[in-house]
Specification:
single chain, mainly beta, two-stranded antiparallel sheet, about 35% strand, elongated
Length: about 45
């Protein structure tokens, strides 16, 4: 869980060395309104 204010926040998402390569979806959910945003990252 990451709690952030109005400014953008940068953080690392830990991956294991044996996680398979490919596309992963990350979903962020706003705590009070439950609005969400989804992005896809590619792990090589």
């Amino acid at each position: 869980m990451v709690i952030a204010g109005a400014e953008p926040v940068e953080f690392a998402i830990p991956l294991a060395h044996n996680d398979p390569a490919g596309d992963y979806q990350i979903t962020a959910v706003e705590l009070f309104t439950q609005r969400s945003s989804v992005t896809t990252v590619n792990v090589k």
